[in-house]
Structures are given as C-alpha cells and as structure tokens.
Amino acid sequence: MKNTTRNALLRTAAAAAKPLPMAAASTSAGAVSWTVYASGFNDPRGLKFGPDGHLYVAEGGMGGTNSTVGQCTQVPPPPGPGPVTGSPTGGRISKVVNGTRVTVTDQFPSDVTNAQTGSGISGVADIAFVGDTLYALTAAGGCSHGVAGTSNGVFRVSATGHITEIANLSAFQMANPTAVVRPSDFEPDGTWYSMVAVRGALYAVEPNHGELDRISTGGSISRVVDISASQGHIVPTAVAFHGNFYVGNLSTFPITGDSKILKITPDGYVKPVAWGLSTVLGVAFDNRDRMYVLENTVGAPGPTPGDGDIIRIDPNGKKTIILSGLHLPTAITMGPDGALYVSDWGIGPPGLGRILRVTGL
Fold it and tell me: H or E stretch including 240?
C-alpha cells in the first residue's frame, strides 16, 4: 500500500458512509468534552480564526469529472490514485457565523481520485491570515489533477471572495524537485496540505514531494528545507509554528505507529522531537507550551472512521490521549477562547463534514 495522502488516506472516503458514535475516551483527561460547532462542510481541512473573530474553514469540495489524460503527465493509475478528474470550481472556503456555515468562495479547483482508490476529494487544503488578508493553499489545481490551465498555489482572497494567485507552487515544484520521490504515486502538481503565517510570510508543507517552503505575500517562493533529503518519503502533512516549525507526518500504511513530530528551525535544521504516533494530520499549541497532535487513525491497518484521536504532549514529554473516537479528522487549530477546533469527517461524502469544539484541555 502506497504512503501518500491521496493514495492511502483519501481513498477512505468511500468507507465514510454515515456518522458513528463518538466518545471522549481518556481516563486521564476526564474534563475534556466536545460539541458540534458547525456542520454541512464538504470535506473540511485546514481551519483558522480570522481577525473578525470568525472561524474560516478550507474545504475539498465536490470533486469533478474533467479528464486531462493525453494532455500532460498524470498521477499514476491503480494501484495509484490516478487518473484524477477535476473541476475548475467547487473547492471552497467557508466561515462560521453564529454557528452557521457561510460560503466565502467556491471558485477553487476540486478533484477526485479514481474509484478503485475510494474517490477521495481534494480542493482547498488550508488557509492563513496575514494581517486582515486571507490566503488559501490549494491541492486540486494543475493539469495532473484534471484541471488544465490551473495550478496548485497560494491565492489571495478578497473580502468579496475574489481570488488572485500570488504564487504558482506547481511550477516551483516542477523546477525544484526534492531528493526523494515515489514514482508509483508521484503527483506532478503536488498535494499541498498545511500552511501557517509567520512574521508576514506564509509557510506551506507538501506531502507527496516532502518539503517546507516559504511564500512571501508578493509571490516569491523559496525552500526552507527538503524534508525528504533527511527523512525519506515520510509524507509530511501538518505544520504549526511555536518558536520553530513543528511538522507531523502521515508515514506509510499499514499503520505501525511510526509517525513523528519534527522540529524544523527557520534556517532548515530538522530534528525529531516526538515519536510513536500514527497518521498525524494536525499540530497545535496552547499558551502553556503544550502540544496537541491530531491522529487520523490509530490501532487499525488503514484509515478508519471512529478511530481518530487527539494527544496532548506536555513540555516534559508526557503524552495523554485527551479525546478519541474522531471520524477521519483532518486538521486542528487553537481558538482565541482556549478551545481546540477540529475538522471531523474531513474525509467523507460532501456535506457530512463538521467542526468540533473541544474544551476542558
């Protein structure tokens, strides 16, 4: 089984047919509880609070049927996730207003993998704010994703929902290959996953090629570090900044508990700081320097609804499972209220996605 976010993780969408019971199952974190903050999302992914106080959510969208076979290099077919089909629109950003999902824009590409690998959907991967300006990171753009004439990149989103590409990440990756790639599941346009804003710039992680890159708001792109060069094809996914960058990885399938957290300095020095994790798709910190790690699936050979959890790692290294029973969760963020917000059913039928608010940390 291949170890990429699309060929191994997104294939589970076909199995996510209906909600399952959920329980907060940690005897050492009994005060933790959760509520549904908002629902009705199409494969929710990265999420951030904006300067207006609203929660903004990146969404995969609805997929598409356009094919570019014969026009450009494709994502490998089964057992790979290609050929991928797409739509130039449908990838969405929403915000939550008084508990209700409101569309900011749905003008980003959205794609879907082949049926043999579960028809997994991608679109907008993550969002971040620099000042009052919203930026989006895409994962479904480019000819290899079935959307000719587009690219994966970073986009500026206006207050009215108008989008402007500021950085073409597809072109950057093609011109600057990483040290280690996996030909059997290689995606020419990449599958960008996570982005944070730090000191006026944007930093994005791409799992399929394995890199952390810096993108200025003016559109210049530079590589902070080729993660694959020192770590191999570990599929880095989630990134948070807490004095340094902290990057979690999906790792390979079947799941063996060998995912980890890497500390990456701003000048690109990589050091593992936490081990023994599974399918990490989110990292966040609270104001007590405690790290929260989102695991998409634990204890199963592959991604499984109802088998995700959140682990808290104290500064002394102690790990505590604070919440379990999550359904294919894909991202977390720390809210200004001190609660964690989680994209639940981040992989599944469109419309099933929801955001959970986790308190009592």
Answer: strand 236-241
* 204-242: pLDDT as tens digits: 999 999 999 999 999 999 999 999 999 999 999 999 999
DSSP 66: B
- Pairwise CA distance, residues 250 & 281, whole Å: 7
Return d(Cα 38, Cα 118) in angstroms, integer.
Answer: 26
Residue 323 in tokens: 């919440």
CA 134 – CA 156 distance, rounded (Å)? 6
For the chain, how many residues are written?
361
Is pTM beyond 0.85? Reply is: yes
Phi, psi of 248 (to 5 degrees): -100, 160
If you search the block for the tokens 């050091």, which residue do you land on?
A: 271
Amino acid at 213: D
Helix (H, G, I), strand (E, B) or coil at 351: coil
pLDDT tens profile 247-263:
999 987 777 889 999 99
d(CA 152, CA 221): 13
